[in-house]
Amino acid sequence: MVNTHMHWDHSSNNHLFPNARVVVQQRELDFARNPVTWHRMLFDVVPGLRPAWQRAEERLSPVDGDTELAPGVTLVALPGHTPGSQGVLVEAAGGRYLIAGDCVYLYDNWHGDDDAEHIPPGYYTDLVAHEQSLRKIESLACEVIPSHDSRVVERKIFK
Question: What is the pTM (predicted TM-score) of this model?
């Protein structure tokens, strides 16, 4: 199982998969343990509460950078939204697809508008790194699948 990053909405239910190892970037894990003040709630770092991702901490499998998980499945480091954000590049019969995590929140973030080719989501830890990650995605020659856009299920079946 892959966590694209350790925000609560992407990692809170890891414990429900007791046989899974959870692959996360080491930089992300380091930051999740002690995020800067204005990101603490996103990582479940709240006084008196144990972060939900820690319920499966013993099954975390940290990696550093781009990592092939299996033939045709590669983790792609995409820092910026968080220090260790990552996507999952899948090479399938129908093409190359990138599950972009929150580097690309909505299709609108990827397609941009008249003023910008791409628009970063509102939450990020490093805007310059985020822009570099968007450029990296461009170089992958793949279809981008955003993380929070309900239109994903309306677009097509990815195969």
Answer: 0.94
